[in-house]
TrEMBL record:
<dbReference type="InterPro" id="IPR033932">
    <property type="entry name" value="YtcJ-like"/>
</dbReference>
<dbReference type="Pfam" id="PF07969">
    <property type="entry name" value="Amidohydro_3"/>
</dbReference>
<protein>
    <recommendedName>
        <fullName>Amidohydrolase 3 domain-containing protein</fullName>
    </recommendedName>
</protein>
<dbReference type="InterPro" id="IPR011059">
    <property type="entry name" value="Metal-dep_hydrolase_composite"/>
</dbReference>
<feature type="domain" description="Amidohydrolase 3">
    <location>
        <begin position="90"/>
        <end position="582"/>
    </location>
</feature>
<dbReference type="GO" id="GO:0016810">
    <property type="term" value="F:hydrolase activity, acting on carbon-nitrogen (but not peptide) bonds"/>
</dbReference>
<dbReference type="InterPro" id="IPR013108">
    <property type="entry name" value="Amidohydro_3"/>
</dbReference>
<dbReference type="InterPro" id="IPR032466">
    <property type="entry name" value="Metal_Hydrolase"/>
</dbReference>
Amino acid sequence: MYNPLNVRLRLNRLFIVFSILAIILITVSCDDRHQHADNISSADTIYLNGNILTMAIPETAEALAITDGRIIAVGNVETINFYRNANTTVIDLKGKTLLPGFIDAHSHFTTVLKINNWANISAPPVGIIENFIDLLAALLKHKEQHAIKKGEWIIAYGYDPTALEELYDITINELDPVFPDNPVMIMHVSNHGAVLNSLALEAFNINKQTPTPYGGIISRIKGTNEPSGLVMEAAFLPIYRIKSKLDEQALGSLFRAQMEYAKYGYTTIVDSSTLENEFELLQKAALNKQLFLDVISLPLFTDIKNILDKNSVEPAQYSDRLKLGGMKLIMDGSPQSKGAWFTQPYLTGNADPDNLDNTNSAWRSEPIMPYSKFKQYYQYSVEQGLPVYTSANGDAAIDTVIQVNYELKINHEQNHRHVVVNSQFMRSSHFDQFKKLGLIPSFFSNNAFFWGDAQVNNLGKERAFTSNPMQSALEQELRFTNHTNFSVTPLNPLFMVWTAVNRLSRGGTIIGTDERISPVQALKAITINAAYQFFEESEKGSLEAGKIADLVILDKNPLTVAAGEIDTIQVVETIKAGKTIYPQTPVDQLAPEQSE
């Protein structure tokens, strides 16, 4: 029989039981939290009071704790305080922005070691060269400052004819009268060629009898077969391998070279197109504990076999901060030099700038090497378990990378993560192919600023405005990275974020409004996506518990400043595995000449 009093008594008993259980659970929970705090290592360092951008979910945090070079917790201040003790260093960010250390998706680290002894002939805003007179004056000044004697080489970098007043290439006619006693090599800004004077041409046996090799350019004086000075692509490769070699003395500049990257917030860097002797020097530096940044070497296809045959190296594994991460292969040249290989022709004739009246409307450029050779190199790298980093700019070159992957029966499930470096002129049909094959595009958004105007001229707006199609890649759920290709463009990653967000050319044109991306996506391209490219996403690229404490502190928040001001953001501090490497100079990491 229903009795309201009995029901009320039962409910009271149940309430008491549940209350007791709740108290027990809360007590246990608190004990567990305190026990957890007791069992873990207390934080060496805690960061708070700033904008913490995690590049993960959740996208922001209030505080972050580090112990022994790794992140142990990310979250709100209350949670992070469980890791704090009397010995913890607490860093007040004072409104600055903390995010993962930048990961260099593609550059040429050893170039920093070389250009110290080369003349800088870059055009504004990188340098001050605006015409041939400026260029020759810079070479003469370099010769004087470095006391270069008769017969010794004069080498310069940053040469960009598209940015000079003359708008065509300098030749032996201008170089020889000024430098009759010195071989001169002016490196093209693309790193795919150079202008040589007569003594330099003679040194490499390039003359009127020299045939132009497949996939190469030897520019000739109009109406003759005499070389005019410009040598590009396949014709330049043998010159590059000889004149770009490092010597033992270069290791003395290794500290400064790494600091050049560290001051821009990089904690992992790349040396693409590493030559055999350069890899051996990097190995020696690693063995001598001279590397304080993680260095990923991508040996050039011409040298990879010798490197693997002669050196005891475990691919894809770091040894004293050096890792052999893949092989660099080259399919075509740059679009601004008309070396990019397209399915449709250029609008402005062929790539020989000395034939100024040439209006060959069929010029589409050509590959650096025959397909059979390309496939041979690609297959070798795959068989060695190495990702292939293929430089491919034009859509025809990208077609070829796709073709070789299909022929080698590669697919995304195999998780090879082969990279198409630049990928500048992907067609819409390429996105699905990349996803099926597991290919990663590493875009080059800086190209829009430096050569967007030249591309509009050479290719027309329709093609130029769809270059580096980052937004389209996002919409197709294709993960991509972005890179500077240093020394082709400056190292500054915030400038690279700016170019990806704004796509503004040097002349003030927006190179494709529809392909602009948000600041957070631009940052992911150089943090978590770049970590993924190198199979390091479980260790780097985002601020999550368990990952290496590779961090960068910026003076402003890239997500809240005006889009046009992102390139003004400054790096305040760079932290590698929990230790400040910039601006602080650790004594035990000094190069020999600095510690003496």
